[in-house]
Specification:
The complex is a heterodimer of chains A (about 450) and B (about 130). Chain A is α/β, with parallel strands linked by helices and about 450 residues long. Chain A is built from 16 helices and ten strands. The longest helix of chain A is centred in the N-terminal third of the chain and has 26 residues. Chain B is built from five helices and four strands, in the order αβααααβββ. In chain B, strands 1-2-3-4 form a four-stranded antiparallel β-sheet. In chain B, β2 and β3 form a beta hairpin. Chain B is globular and about 50 Å long. With about 130 residues, chain B is an alpha+beta fold. In chain B, about 50% of the residues are buried. The chains are: A alpha/beta (about 450), B alpha+beta (about 130). Chains A and B meet through α1, α3, α5, β2 and α9 of A and β1, α2, α5, β2 and β3 of B. Chain B: Its main location: cytoplasm. Chain B: This is Multifunctional methyltransferase subunit trm112. Chain B: It is found in: Cytoplasm; Nucleus.
Chain lengths: ~450, ~130
Amino acid sequence: MGAHSLPSASAADAVAKLAAAEALKSTAASAASASSAPGSSTETALGTAQGASAAGGAGPVTAVPSSDTPSVAVDPEAEAEAYERANVHNVYEAIAPHFSATRYKPWPAVAQFLHAQQPGYVGLDVGCGNGKYLGVNKNVFMVGSDRSANLVAHANERVKELQKPQQQQPEAEVVRARIGGSKKEKKQKQEVPTGGERESEAPNAVIGKETGSEVAVANDVLVADGLSLPFREGRADFAICIAVIHHMSTRTRRQEAIRQLLKCVRPGGQVMVYVWALEQGESRRGWDEGGEQDLLVPWVLKSQQPKPKKEKQPKASKQKQKWPQQQQNHDSTEPQEAITAKNVGEKEATPTSSSILSPSSVPKDASMTIGGGTGAGVTEPASAAAAAVAGPDAKTDTGDAAASADAVFQRYYHLYRNGELEEDVLAARGAVVMSGYERDNWWVVATHATNDDTLQD
Amino acid sequence: MKVMTLNFLTCAVKNCKSSNDSFPLHPKEAELAKDDIEINPQLLINVLPRIDWAALRTTSTELGFPTLPEQPPSPEDLQSDEALLKELHELLMETQMMEGKLVCGHCGHEYAVKNGVANFLLPSHLV
């Protein structure tokens, strides 16, 4: 060790001194308090969406009133931002628990990219959602970021789970609860994830450690906007951005997002971007070459409860949908989408539902709490618009539940046509290393263009 | 928020990126905790050259730890010295900033850290 004496036992002492006492009591206590200070995972899974403003880091997101910016939005950039806030950010905040419960299986191409990274590499996952890509490669350190504080709260749960010292007990309980398939769990399968972009027909529903994993993994997560990232430029070895950029509503912003990713990685570092494809001939969504590329895609939070709680009264349908051209294809696309979604939703949701995050004590009316409790100012604009646009579709796939109880959220998507992603990489002063198509998605691995002289700045 | 992560973060404000004052961010009113994480020697040894050591020294000092040596340990040091490896692990991976603020030394903007998660969303006038 010689001259290199790091803060040793004294460091631990200092930590202990400064730390909240309860956080140090035990591993379990530490993990619990670190991931969701106020309480159990149950509370987190349901409470984040419900009480966003009360849930720590969630405040800033929901605190931005969606009605403010549109009224003052005079420049296109601000307008695009406001649009995305209403039709992407707020939606994810609202559907975070359900969304998270359906997202656990990595896309193969992404997993392959991650596994190709060297031990000790430092990577970024921009738009990490619930953090399903954290821990795929256990020998890299990854920092995930997402615009949605509620999703980041889920990702943080995952981080804590992944880094726990080996304890079979908790995991075994989860598995048992899952296999048991209690009634309670069945009642959880209310979500109908209509967007298939982060698909997951996963046989393995364990969100925490992957099956067979025995290495503890260190990762981290934070809340950030993809266009204003807090990462020091040129420091990361690699970055991924999966099913994120298609949520940006202008081409300029999509290209800028790729530019930001490239700036984060060192020279030679690689960035993988994955977006929903326009060409989905194999899927039942009905989208294909030549179709409309800018769409609002519904996410239906279904309730199968006989007596759902009332949804909060919409404050107003103040957020009139702009850009009407983006909805022109709804009639033709949504029915198929809804059907697809239902099938996918049932398949996906059944094994996992919220059981992973809250194995036993989910309130019966969880879905409605989530659907309606996110804060009217936040979700109603999207929801109201959704009702107007997708109401009939929602009914078609409800059948076994009260249609009126379903909460429909619209998410904006830009469907990439063949070649467009590569064009955007070039426009972002990047170079395409490789690219491909995987189950309704285009992907690209990009790096800095060799003549990019802005790397130094 | 791990100390490790802090070593890769700067201010989210565009104008601050080019300023040396924006890195590292300065912890303020930090409440720390220590996670119990299994050590991954291979990862640590390979991560070491990716660490900005000077920034780590600053962060470490600001968090109240004893001053780090001026020079980082070498991979060989780490490989041969288990105690050193463990110390590095404790500092980088296990030490968590649970609550507090991260302050940009350039623009002065403060980012909140709550429940161990830092929030870098900017108010509209800073975007």
